[in-house]
Amino acid sequence: MPASAAWARPEDLVESLSSLDNTARLKALRDVKNQIIGNKTKKLSYIKLGAVPRVVEILASDTEIPLLVQSAAAVGSFACGIDAGVKAVLDSGVLPHLLKMLQNGDNKVVEACARSLKMIFHSPLAPKSDMFEGHRMELILELLNNGSENVAEVAASVLARCCETLEHQQALADAGGLRSLVSLLAGSVKKQEAALDALAALTKHNQQLSAILIMMDQGAALSLIIRLIRDKSPRMRLLACMCLAHIGKACPAGYGQEDEVRINMLGILMKLLDEPGQVGEDAPGVLADLVTNNEELQKIAQKENAVEKLADILHRDTLPAKQLEGVLLALAELCSRLEESRRQLLDSQVEAPIVAAFGHPCEGVKVAACSCVKSLSRSVKNLRTALTGERLVIPLLQLLSDPSSAVQVQAIAAVGNIVLDFTLQKTVVMQSSGIDQLVHFAQSMDPILRRNAVLALKNLLYMADSVVKGRVVNELTVSTLCELIRDSEEDVQEQAISLVRNLAYGDPDCIDYVFAHGDLLLQAVEQQLSVSLRPEISMQALYVINNVAAGNERHKDAVMDLVAPHKALSNTSGFLLNRYLQDMINPQLRVVAVWCIINLTYPGGTGTSSRVTRLKNAGVESLLQKMADDPCLDVKDRVKTALEHFSTAVTLVATTSGQ
Amino acid sequence: MRVCVIYPKSSSKKVITKEEWEKKLSEVKIRKEDMNKLVMNFLVTEGYVEAAEKFQMESGTQPDIDLGTITDRMAVRKAVQCGQVEDAIEKVNDLNPEILDTNPQLFFHLQQQRLIELIRSGQVEEALEFAQEELAPRGEENHAFLEELERTVALLAFEDTANCPVGELLDISQRQKTASELNAAILTSQSHEKDPKLPSLLKMLIWAQNQLDEKASYPRINDLVNATLEEPVT
Amino acid sequence: MQRGGRGDGDDEMEEEEAPTHLNTSTCGHFLVITTDKLCAKYTGEGLHGNDVGVIQGNQAAPCHRLLYYFEITVKDRGLKGYIGIGFTDEHFRNSRQPGWEPNSYGYHGDDGKLYHGQGKGHVFGPTFTTGDTVGAGINYASQEIFFTKNGKMVGATFKDVKTALYPTIGLHSPNEKVEVNFGQRQFVYDVEALVQEERERRHRAVENVHLPPSASHSIVRAYLLHYGYHDTLAAFDAASGGSFPPVVCTPHEDGNNGTLDDDSFALDQRKVLRRLARDGDVDSVFAKLREWYPQQLQQEHDSNIIFLLHCQKFIELVKSGMLEGAVTYARTELAHFFGASLDQDLHLQDCLALLAYERPQESPMAYLLHFGQREVVADAVNAFVLATNPSLPASGKSPQSGLEKLLRQLTACHVEKRLLNGGQGEVFSLHRILQGGKDGGW
């Protein structure tokens, strides 16, 4: 066997990397490089043998061109395709050396180093921000004008991979990157592709740069990109679509003809889904970006059978993480609003692949799978019929304890929808450690986690039986709940109060949970009702009051004490509900406030007459009489009922006193 | 989606005699420089670098790619054609290390070709070792690779490899196939079309003749190499 | 005779005029048209079958392309929504709906039916009304008329009318109003995607054709032989060395020699002559020809080859700045060619015009000074030698390379097919395909 017989043992080769003899060193370097390119197993074994620091050392201290080229190439290959390799080269401190060599007089060295950077920065492990320190970015930008085809192309790819945050984008734009990249669009296929890739990175979520690109050269740059969505090369088509999807998403004002172009892109991306390799892997993610928040486009996609097509991909044997994530995200977007799409997706038997995605090692995939379930579970019908059983719910609940908070946030959001309506799911959550975890997250420092957890608990309590309610109150505790009601975040307050609303809905047993700790909870709610300026919060608080007022005599009296305390009787403005009865901006608030009165004055109770008297004294009746012609029909009807309650009570009082 | 409403039957075929057709042929304007370009494109894409250089001198035709890049590409191709796959791998890695690092299928085919060459030269033990160490891990990464690997290893089971069911792997055409795949990958990495235009035009000729057959009877060219005009079928 | 450079532009490639607005001069009586000529409103009463408001585009649909397409948007369906869109011929009666009369096609909004040449429609697609955008197109490749509604293909019908067709709209109830888009704005229907689909379909069909192995290789080799590109041939053969099968040459059954032998005829002589011509050494070319082909040269005394060589000699003199010598040469050797043929006269005029410019290399005749002109002469010499091959049938034609024959056949097939389609559809241009670069052109 010519080659491997000639090759020394790996250990010896690694040793030779540090040989003092230049020729031996070069030979060892080439051998290692040629063994690892394309071969993950070899990469790992050489990393274990400690080859990486030795290779980097050559780059750092040698001056001979072939040695520099070969070591840069080897570094690039170690970093290509495996995280362990990226970590190893970064740990060896290779970045400054590679960057320094970009100024080398030999273009081969420059190309090899730039390529190496491209490989390294392809990985999420790479420290992107490091590239924006000092004058590093200028160095790369200069390479865009390099006479060599390859160098310019590779430099643009490096930019595409480095540019992640708003600051990065701005720094690049300030250094003139946008213009240089646009001029690359006139070059060879590879240059064009790399430039589109970088432009897509620059415009992602960046309204300002998107707008500049739209206007550049009287729209000539944009027109060129639009033309490229029909290029012969599928990768070009994909990258042009990606670029336009980013621009369209970031720039709400958009550009002329945008709707037509988007529809065209939809068709093009749908076809790209079938492309082999990288293009097919990246296409679903771009599709997801394209249809985000665009219901019209989602409808068109649905009619073009996008859901079925994506679901088919989901059923394939092994999908690369990127593709799986993209497909799930695209499905999540497509099903976020359209019931028909949800139905189609469920008809495609995707539960198993989605559940499998819950256990995927990659964070993005798990997040996407949760988003998908979240979208599907927005349909109550689906909750009842399709998203059943422990197979889905238990693994989803397990994600609540995922180390990644991004996963947790989406998982809780999905759990929140899942537990909404279906008793079986509720039971499953109960039986697993679901409640513990939700309670745990409800006390998280992360406001989004906290909100989603409270929301999930709220949904869990929706129409739940007394056992579920009891457990949640026990585990969460009244004092924590009170804290959540007074949370610093209004979103959390709203969810917490509406949790109490669900808790207080139902028979008196349920309402009793509200009084598990005296009237502490009710007081907390009342407090928010008095201070909050957000109608959403007031609304939820009024619902709590109303639900409690619908309970037994004791509950009603507790509400009376809260809303119309004896001591404040002299002052009508002191009556809490009056404010909402008179809220002319939000008829919904008036409706609920009147409902509260109706429940408090409901005929037949032992304390009814006394409550009616107290309310009368608080000026409620006269206020209601003024509302007899309320512009809101709903309010008007309820006021009528309430006034009837008042007169019935008077009659009853009259009858009793007459005896 | 498409609704087609009215479709009448096509009318009878037009007959064009050889004389009429030859007159039409003589009216066609073909530029010498276009033919030269076509030939140059063939030479360049297929990697005949010296011929391309000579042709540039002899005909004044400019190549559409830097001739310097062909030499390296051809050295790679030639190495595969001669069965020196490791040599080809080293060369392509020098040209652009990304090609094999980001193209697992091509990389696998090269490794497979190496295995084939080992088997061809009767190095059974080395072949087995190579298959286990180098190819098996690739098979684990991709199911399609595994099947190809199994097919290749099956060669070892036959004493008379030339007549075994998987014997075609040992054929020269297998080397050509691998060499072409590698050549195309290098061309693509250089932003160049991976196929020459001439074969496409030849295919287009056959296709266009078939299309015209439906509507007319005329002298076809069936023998592309000698370009002989047949008598029209009537 | 082959001429390079001037006047050899791609004549058939001229951009055709396409409709840009409505033709108000032939418009019917029952319409008002906005000043931009892109909006039409019905003003008649729609009482009978002959008060339709019909208007055509200002040009016929261009036909030297794969497809033509236009759209209307219904601004107001009017009383009854009797709106028709389609194509009509030049002589269409401007008071009838498109589709009702012969040589016309129409898709009608009120019933969604397709009309073609008669008052009775075929069930076709959905109806259309206010707010809808409806399109009509001609697919020359498939010879179909197609219609779209709101960006979706509705359907197609066979196009049996071979004469020029005009984009047409017809309105026929009070207050109907439509706006037409001749491509000044992006279309709602993705017509580009249809073009691409059509091309891809053809591309796939072409790629599926099976070729005999190494056909290209043999054709290239024969080409190099034919033109006597000797060094290229040698390098080509050396590089192919064994890894390709040798050129396939099937001897003809009647005993004639194959093309290969024709192509290799007098290769050694042709190689020398080509090199001399390439170097601009016209004198040596003459000398060698006299030495090797005295008889044939005598017969050809006033012929094209001699003419071209003399012209080239003159050009070489101009090139080297020997203007006086050039003038003398022209008087002695060129003058008597005048009046022999139109082609020769034109070429001669171009050559002599070089004298009129202080900087001939910047003049319109500069092409004569390029290497390409030497190549023209070298090819003529080569053809001359090949024609001396005694085994060649005495047809009087200059022999062609196999490649040239194939390309002629290819072009002729396309031309003929277009002809059979009434001269409609994309014009095939080999030149454009070769220029097309990465887009692949046609």
Give a quick set of tags describing it.
heterotrimer; B: about 230 residues; mainly alpha; 2 domains; C: about 450 residues; alpha+beta; Jelly Rolls; 7-stranded antiparallel beta sheet; 6-stranded antiparallel beta sheet; 13 helices; elongated; disordered C terminus; Ubq-SigPath_Reg (chain B); CRA_dom (chain B); CTLH_C (chain B); CTLH domain-containing protein (chain B); ARMC8/Vid28 (chain A)
Model description:
- The complex is a heterotrimer of chains A (659), B (234) and C (442).
- Chain A is mainly alpha-helical.
- Among the domains of chain A are: 1-126, Leucine-rich Repeat Variant; 145-256, Leucine-rich Repeat Variant (Alpha Horseshoe), CATH 1.25.10; 258-376, Leucine-rich Repeat Variant, CATH 1.25.10; 571-659, Leucine-rich Repeat Variant.
- Helix content of chain A is 73%, strand content 1%.
- Chain A is elongated and about 110 Å long.
- In chain B, the strands form 2 sheets. Chain B has a two-stranded parallel sheet. In chain B, strands 3-4 form a two-stranded antiparallel ribbon.
- Chain B has 11 helices and 4 strands; from the N terminus they run βαααααααααααβββ.
- Chain B has 234 residues and is mainly α.
- Chain B has helices at residues 18-27, 32-46, 49-59, 67-81, 85-95, 98-101, 104-120, 124-141, 143-153, 172-189, 197-213; strands at residues 14-15, 216-217, 221-223, 228-229.
- Chain B folds into 2 domains: 18-30 and 202-229, no CATH class; 65-195, no CATH class.
- Chain C is of the alpha+beta class and 442 residues long.
- Helices cover 36% and strands 16% of the residues of chain C.
- Chain C is built from 13 helices and 13 strands.
- Chain C has helices at 191-207, 215-227, 230-240, 259-264, 267-278, 282-292, 294-299, 304-319, 323-334, 342-353, 371-387, 402-420, 430-435; strands at 31-33, 39-42, 53-56, 67-76, 83-88, 104-108, 113-116, 122-123, 133-139, 144-149, 152-158, 166-171, 177-181.
- In chain C, the strands form 2 sheets. A 7-stranded antiparallel β-sheet of chain C has the order 1-2-13-4-9-10-11, with no helix packed on it. In chain C, strands 3-12-5-6-7-8 form a 6-stranded antiparallel β-sheet, with no helix packed on it.
- In chain C, α6 packs antiparallel against α8 (304-319).
- Chains in contact: A-B, A-C, B-C.
- Chains B and C meet through α1, α2, α3, α11 and β4 of B and β11, α1, α2, α3 and α5 of C.
